[in-house]
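Researcher: Sequence recovery benchmark, item below. Answer with residues only.
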């Protein structure tokens, strides 16, 4: 996972102790550094203590953010004191970057409410949020209205915010793939490409006939096929026919070429029953193989299910899986059994082995 780049705005209002901004900025930078992000922020050379208070400050910060437009995945606003709500809102408006924004406010200490120590960030945060709402700028909040940045609660807030940033950035101009059509009985996986397109998500398609034709052109002696076969049997030790594994290796080669040529981030697959009848394999192990490599693969040409897998992967940084809410768990109304055929990535499985499909083998035949 590449390092995330986060913008930082340090708010200030001059009638409150501005020295708090110096320490507040340093503390927040330390916390963000510990979270493993790269920070884009004004420096003390740009403005006093690197803070934003005036129109001129807001334009300097907006210019800085615009220079890093393609790299920024989110912006944190921190209020060591009340902060100037208009300068903060102007910064975000004129930066004109559509990324998540987190509003943080430092807490006052009950014995430090004298004029030289008081923050009033509690009130300042309300004002900042009110202005952002007026400006039409969306924002996120911390779990507590005012919170120490070094606290475990804020640590979770930042982790959740960074996950949100990864999701938002990852879904922009996303390309997904669909191989084959949905199984005819499965109307539950129908979707609208037009709705996805309006959200900036494109779907490239490949007909199963194209896939099978490309597989048919590959020989068992092809160096790429041999390499993928070795990698696949290392990934999961199969039980049974080497001929089936060779077909799976060819399937991997063709799908990898298609993904690379079209810059596809994940794919949904028509996993039954055409491919069993025409190629003689179940593709579940191959789909598991791709999902483990952070190229999520969804069953039954379930493109919106694939989108959910991709979102989960962005949030966690780990392989994801799609499952059915499949069975009741005895008489326990608060439990159910989550199940799916066999395309889970190895990260989710315990002592896995690849064998015949124990359910559909009865329908299409054990030899397929």
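Model:
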């Amino acid at each position: 996972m590449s390092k995330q780049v986060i913008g930082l705005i340090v708010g200030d209002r001059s009638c409150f102790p501005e020295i708090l901004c110096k320490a507040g900025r340093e503390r927040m930078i330390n916390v963000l550094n510990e979270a493993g992000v790269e920070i884009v922020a004004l420096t003390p050379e740009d403005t006093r203590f690197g803070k934003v208070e005036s129109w001129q400050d807001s334009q300097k910060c907006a210019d800085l953010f615009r220079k890093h437009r393609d790299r920024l995945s989110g912006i944190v606003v921190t209020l060591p004191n009340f902060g100037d709500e208009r300068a903060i809102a102007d910064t975000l408006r004129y930066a004109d970057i559509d990324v998540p924004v987190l509003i943080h406010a430092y807490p006052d200490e009950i014995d430090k409410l004298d004029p030289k120590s008081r923050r009033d960030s509690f009130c300042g945060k309300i004002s900042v949020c009110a202005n952002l709402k007026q400006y039409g700028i969306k924002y996120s909040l911390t779990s507590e209205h005012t919170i120490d940045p070094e606290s475990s609660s804020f640590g979770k807030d930042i982790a959740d915010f960074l996950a949100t940033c990864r999701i938002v950035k990852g879904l922009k101009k996303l390309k997904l793939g669909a191989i084959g059509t949905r199984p005819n009985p499965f109307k539950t996986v129908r979707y609208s490409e037009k709705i996805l397109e309006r959200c900036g998500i494109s779907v490239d398609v490949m007909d199963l006939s194209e896939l099978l034709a490309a597989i048919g052109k590959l020989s068992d002696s092809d160096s790429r096929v041999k390499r993928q076969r070795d990698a696949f049997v290392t990934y999961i030790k199969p039980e049974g026919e080497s001929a089936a594994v060779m077909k799976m290796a060819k399937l991997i080669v063709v799908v990898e070429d298609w993904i690379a040529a079209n810059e596809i981030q994940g794919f949904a697959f028509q996993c039954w029953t055409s491919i069993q009848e025409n190629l003689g394999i179940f593709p579940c192990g191959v789909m598991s193989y791709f999902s483990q490599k952070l190229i999520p693969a969804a069953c039954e040409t379930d493109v919106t299910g694939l989108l959910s897998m991709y979102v989960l992967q962005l949030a966690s940084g780990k392989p994801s899986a799609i499952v059915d809410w499949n069975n009741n768990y005895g008489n326990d109304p608060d439990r159910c059994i989550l199940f799916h055929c066999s395309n889970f990535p190895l990260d989710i499985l315990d002592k896995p082995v690849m064998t015949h499909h124990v359910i559909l083998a009865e329908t299409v035949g054990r030899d397929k």
